[in-house]
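User:
Care to share a sequence and structure tokens?

Assistant:
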Amino acid sequence: MSVLTASPDFVYGNTRLRARKAQLLTEADYDALLGRDLDGVRDALTQTAYRPEIEAVLARGAGALGLETAVRDHLARVLGEMRAFYRERARELVALLLSRFDLQNLLTLVRGRARAQPADVILRAVVPIGPLAHGPAEEIARRDDVTAAVELLITWRLPDPDTAARLAAAWPRFERTQDLARLEHELAVAHAGRVERSLARAPETLRELVARERDATNVLTVLRLRAALRAGELTELPPPGPDRFLPGGRIGENALEEALRLPAPTDTVATLADASHRPDWRRPLERYPAGGDLPLLQRQLEDARLRWALRLFLAGDPLGIDVPIAYTVGNENEARNLRIVAESAAGGEPAEAVRARLLIPDGGGLWDA
């Protein structure tokens, strides 16, 4: 990726995205989906921007999995179209924003083949954006075994040369240990390092978006290691190493190591909250010691990231990367919401319980203009 030096021109693309913001689902749209079965949810979505994808999966006879496929295809389509609105430096920044899907798709493919999942199951979880979209993903997912899939990734240098090189270096160890979690972490570290180098001259809001993701992962790593010690799953902490934490966060490695070794949980979360310099993180972190619920904390930190990003539609720079960030995160959040709606429709979950799990932007006052 080239060095981002020239002032990027976002005017045309941002104008298009502001017009497309109206296509994102509203509070009324979500209310119309709740309480329906899967067929009813699909029917309701044909009255929205999802109509092309819904009709396409119905024509293919996708059955109960069709809604999941339609949501994925819609996300890929609208973000691919977004990228096409920009040129030169602005397009480079948007491509860097969308590189978040490169790691997601890589881990999906490697994990799926390592677990011997059918190719069709793996491919449903791949978001067709970036270098691992469509043809390459299909070739890799249909390899006979995980070794053949990994060899193809390394040969094709996907999703990028740096991450592929790390995969090549880490693969012999995985073959000996079968430690998939460690392999995935090493790939995440490699990809994070590559993104961090590309972010050196990027706008502050793009850096903060990535930093929130990195910091959340690192905070959860600290708390998981402490929980493993308390539960007796570890007898002692592993020694510090360059790959313990993901690069690119605001919370420095020294603060993370200090929090890891503090005796009191309240001191640990206070150290992490102070080091993050984010007021919207303090309350979730301070509440964590009372229940020790890591999945809840993970969801709360993710909600904080979503809310921060979605507000950029109103509070961000209208002539910069802020609008693509808000649009991308808005569509990611919408896909997440629809997966919850679909799962709940299939399971018969009450509408009130489903609604409580959704993050609805206009319902929370996140964009009113």
About this structure: The radius of gyration is 21 Å. The mean pLDDT is 92. The CA atoms of residues 251 and 275 lie 5 Å apart. The chain has 20 helices and no strands.
